[in-house]
Design goal:
Blueprint: E1 2-8, H1 16-32, E2 37-39, H2 54-58, H3 60-85, E3 88-96, E4 108-114, E5 120-124, H4 130-136, E6 146-149, E7 152-156, H5 165-170, E8 176-181, H6 186-203, E9 206-212, E10 214-215, E11 224-225, E12 230-232, E13 244-247, E14 254-259, H7 262-271, H8 276-286
């Protein structure tokens, strides 16, 4: 398959038609290059808040609900485009306030995966960053999901989630892990990219990082974003020695593409130079007890 992952800039949208035109153009471009799976970034949906006016977009609380109110329309558009172009699309995540788990009463950060037949799977973020938890009051949503698709088994680790090995391990059956992200500084981009590459190493799978890029001074939440799309695998047989299948130029908008053969994932899991995924079970009990040894 061919995977396209986005380095995606946010825009002030004058009306809904502008959003339709933008998203359609992005999907058409990737599909025109033969992409089968398109990955948009975390909080890329925040540009929908501008449809309610810049005053709303600048207000943290109001922007959450403005985007959440638009998500059903955005989902319908993504479902239509997935069918029209016969592609799988991970939509840019955004705050959701509908269909929340029991006892969840604040917005969650939700990504949605669309298939060519119109099906939709939902993945909520698991672990909030400090800004999300302490300032924005976005909360964890539903559990991790493993999606069985025509392209293979797909999991989603939204940005900060990719930095937690146990979350990655819970999706160890996934052939592909999607990592939509938004990071305001090079350090944040580096953390998520390192996390994505580490999960590819541990699970011997392909990981796909997408990023918001550029300035959006109309939003306190996503005002400055630094990043690039990237596609990674384990640095082992059948993959590049660096583990990097493709990497976009920092902060340059556009798609980043890589051809991926999941037979190589199966091969490296069965007979790689190392067997990280299998040998997790060997390391886990060794980590249960640490001997303290003073060395005066």
């Amino acid at each position: 398959m061919k995977i396209a992952t986005a380095s995606y800039p946010l825009d002030v949208l004058p009306d809904w038609a502008a959003y339709e035109d933008k998203l359609t153009a992005w999907v058409a471009e990737a599909a025109g290059q033969g992409a089968d799976l398109l990955v948009f970034p975390e909080y890329g949906a925040m540009e929908l808040a501008t449809l309610a006016g810049l005053e709303v977009a600048r207000d943290l609380e109001a922007s959450l609900h403005a985007v959440a109110d638009r998500l059903p329309e955005a989902d319908a558009l993504h479902a239509h485009l997935a069918g029209q172009f016969q592609v799988h699309i991970l939509a840019a995540s955004g705050p959701a306030t509908h269909g929340l788990p029991d006892a969840v009463h604040r917005p969650v950060n939700r990504a949605r995966l669309f298939t060519p037949d119109g099906s939709m799977g939902v993945q909520d973020k698991q672990v909030m960053t400090r800004f999300e938890a302490e300032v924005w009051d976005v909360v964890p949503g539903g559990p991790l999901c493993l999606f069985y698709t025509a392209l293979g088994k797909i999991g989603v680790l939204i940005c900060y989630d990719s930095e937690f090995p146990l979350l990655g391990r819970a999706l160890s059956e996934a052939d592909i892990l999607l990592v939509p992200s938004v990071t305001e500084a090079l350090a944040g981009y580096s953390r998520v990219r390192i996390g994505a590459q580490a999960r590819a190493l541990e699970n011997q799978c392909v990981t796909v990082m997408s990023s918001v890029v550029g300035a959006a001074d109309w939003s306190e939440a996503v005002d400055i974003s630094v990043g690039a799309g990237g596609i990674f695998g384990p640095p082992d047989r059948g993959f590049p020695d660096t583990g990097i299948l493709a990497l976009g130029e920092l902060n340059v908008p556009g798609w980043v593409y890589a051809d991926v053969d999941l037979a190589r994932v199966a091969d490296v899991r069965r007979d790689g130079g190392v067997l990280n995924r299998r040998d997790w079970a060997l390391g886990a009990p060794r980590a249960e007890r640490v001997t303290v040894t003073p060395l005066p």
